[in-house]
C-alpha cells in the first residue's frame, strides 16, 4: 500500500537512494518534454550513473547505422506532398502508428498527389500478414530474420549483377527483379522501416544495408527513408542526449565523463547482469517490454518512478513522483519521428500539486547537490 507524503519528503528519500547507489540507472525520457530530458542528463552526470532511453530497445540499431553511413531522409510533409511509392518494411502502422497512413503517407492528398491513395503505390515487406499488408498493393512476405539477404539481393540486381540462386529470403529472383524495377520506376519513393528491421538478426547491419539501397536507388529516381519511431519524443531524447553528451543512448558517467557502448551500458544488459542497484524511471514503462529476468532485477532494488499513469513499472515503485502530462498539463518541446521539433501547448491545469517532469528533476538535482555538499 502507498503512503502519501510531501514533495520534500519524497525528494529527500529519492535523493538518499540515488546518492548511496554504486550504479544508479536513469532510464526512459521518451514520453516527456526535451526540457526534462536535459535535466536528466545533468542529474546522471552529477550521480556518475547510467543514462539511457527507450531507443536501446527499439531504434538504437538505426542510430548506429546512421553514424556509420549517414541517412538520406526528409520530413513527413515532403512525403505527404510528393511520394508516389511507399514501403513499410518491418512495420505495421495500422496498429503502431494509426494516424500515419491518414496524415502523412498513404490516404492523405498531397500538393503533387491530388488523388491521395489512388496516386500512391503501397508495398509492405513483412513475414506476417499484418493489417497493413492486407491493404497493400504488394506484400513481400519474406522469411523471418532474412531482411539482410533480401536487401543485398536487391542491391545486386540494381547494379545489374546476375544471381546464381532462384530464391532469396523466401522470395523468387523474378519477383525481386520486379520489385526493384517498381522501385526504380517511381517518381518519389520513401522507405519507412520499423522494429522488424532493427530488432531481427543483423540489427544495425539491416539498417546499414537498407540505407545503402536507398542511396543507390537515387542513381535512378528520388528515394528517401525514415525510421518509424515509437514513443512520441524518443527522437527528442536522442537529440538532447547527443547535443549534451555526444551520444544518443546507453551512456555511462561513472568515470566522470560520458562513455557510449551499447551492450555494455544498455539498460537491459546491465539489468540482466544485475549491475544496477537503484533505478530512476522517467516517463517510461520498462516492466512491460524488458525481459522477465531484467524486470525481476529491476524490482529487486529500490525503484523511483516519475510517471503520471498506473503502469506495471510505477505500481511496483518504492517512490512515485507524479508529474504533469507534457502537451496537456504543461508546455514543452518534442521532436517528431522525422526530427522536426514541435512546441507542446498546455490545454488544462495539472491536478493537485503535480509538478512538471522538468521541475521534479530540477528540485531533485538541488537536493542531491545539497546532500553531496556541492
Automatic annotation (TrEMBL):
Q: Does the keyword Heme apply?
A: no
What are the Molybdopterin oxidoreductase domain coordinates in residue numbering? Answer: 2-367
Q: Name one GO cellular component term.
A: membrane
Q: Which GO terms describe its biological process?
A: methanogenesis; respiratory electron transport chain
- Keyword Metal-binding, does the record have it? no
Checking SUPFAM superfamilies in the record gives: Formate dehydrogenase/DMSO reductase, domains 1-3
Which Gene3D superfamilies does the record cross-reference, listed alphabetically?
A: 3.40.50.740, Dimethylsulfoxide Reductase, domain 2 (3.40.228.10)
State the organism of origin. marine sediment metagenome
| GO function terms (MF aspect) | formylmethanofuran dehydrogenase activity; NADH dehydrogenase activity
Q: Which terms are listed as keywords in the entry? A: Oxidoreductase
Against NCBIfam families, the record matches this protein to: one_C_dehyd_B (TIGR03129)
Q: What is this protein called?
A: Molybdopterin oxidoreductase domain-containing protein
Pfam families reported for this sequence = Molybdopterin
